Amino acid sequence: MIAFDIPFNRAYLTGNELENIARAHQVGQLSGDGPFTEKCSQFIERAINSPKTLLTHSCTAALEMTALLIDIKPGDEVILPSYTFVSTVNAFVLRGAIPVFVDIRPDTKNINEIRIEESISNKTKAIIVVHYAGVSCEMAEILRIAKKYDLIVIEDAAQAIFSRYNEAYLGTLGDFGCFSFHETKNITCGEGGAISVNRADLREKAEIVREKGTNRTQFSRGEISKYSWVDVGSSYLPGEISAAFLMAQLESGLNITQRRLAIWKQYQDAFAPLEESGSLTLPYTPGNCDHNAHIYYLVLADEEQRESFIRAMSDLGIQCVSHYVPLHMSSFFQRLARALNIKACDLPVTEDVYRRLVRLPLWLGVDVERVIDSVYKTIECRC
Which of 84, 112, 304, 383 gives 88 a disulfide partner, CB atoms 3.0 to 4.6 angstroms apart? Predict the structure, then answer.
């Protein structure tokens, strides 16, 4: 494994994580739904105006919960972008759903809202949006389409904690919002996630699904005298150690976000001349969106230049990486498409972005000036 002077990611510590873990141990409840889990849930609810937040052991778990909550059946179709992490689609394929991929916008790299309606059929059950790099999808139009066709909207907000669209926090606009606290995210506990349940009629069911299909949560609140198996579900709770770690991160969430935004802006300002010269394309944020600086990326001329850029930066001690292999190009989807006779995907923007996008290191403490200087050296050498 290559040791980089500046790795792509390095998790930030607030300084209070270990103290919280010791406190959790002193309380004596290290399994799920202890005091720190409750504190984290309540903190997120207040911070993003979520009506009901449940902590999970990953964003994958939160997405899987939504598939159970909306009762996905074999043959149901779900609309989503192909340019996303595999968990976005796996949660629904596990229940027998058929993914219908829609191309992305060239500017934000989010699902192209203009292409959604043409992909709807009488089998469509849900639209799954992914807020790439913490920048919101065009939610007003997506929600309008969903209402017109009576479809469920699930926000994969794994990258979008504390981001906003028209002043509303991402994850609270659709029927559900799913968040990640993975090591690579702005707010982290190593592995972790949360689901914002925005539909009042599914909040109790969400508690049941999360607790292995039992009404144990209601029992713990003293609402019933004993708990039992009442529905399908799984073990989606995080341990209390993870929640204790996460609480320290959440309490510093505003500071973390502001500092990341400062780094993001430093990159954006520094590379503006390169965009003006036509050497590359920079990230775009619509005026009605407030992002959280989760990712900073450059879009180069072609795949060959992208790979050459990554190698050159590596030689300078800086780790830069590409992003998702589009799901429709994966070996598994090719097998699935043959088995289910799914028509070939026409996603030119997705395939183009995949081949040209490169992500730069963005973490608290990164040597921004060195990264900027190295990018200029690399681009100038290439030219």
Answer: 84
pLDDT at 222: 87
Whole-number Å distance between alpha carbons of 2 and 131:
31
- The domains found in the chain, sorted by start residue, are 17-252 (3.40.640.10), 254-382 (3.90.1150.10)
CA–chain centroid gap for 127, Å, is 15
Query: Which residues touch 82 (CB under 8 Å, ≥6 apart)?
Result: 101, 102, 103, 104, 326, 327, 328, 329, 345, 347, 350
Tokens of 30: 């290290």
The first and second tokens of residue 140, run together, are 């007003």
Q: What pLDDT score was predicted for residue 219?
A: 85
Residue 70 has a pLDDT of 98
Q: Which residues contact 106 (CB under 8 A, 6 or more apart)?
A: 349, 352, 353
Which residue numbers in the chain have pLDDT < 70? 1, 382-383
**How far apart (Å, rounded) are the C-alpha atoms in residues 320 and 366?**
13
**CA dihedral for 367, 373, 374, 379, sign (positive or negative):** positive
Helix runs in the chain, H state only: 17-27, 35-48, 59-69, 86-93, 139-149, 203-210, 216-220, 240-251, 253-276, 303-315, 331-340, 348-356, 368-382
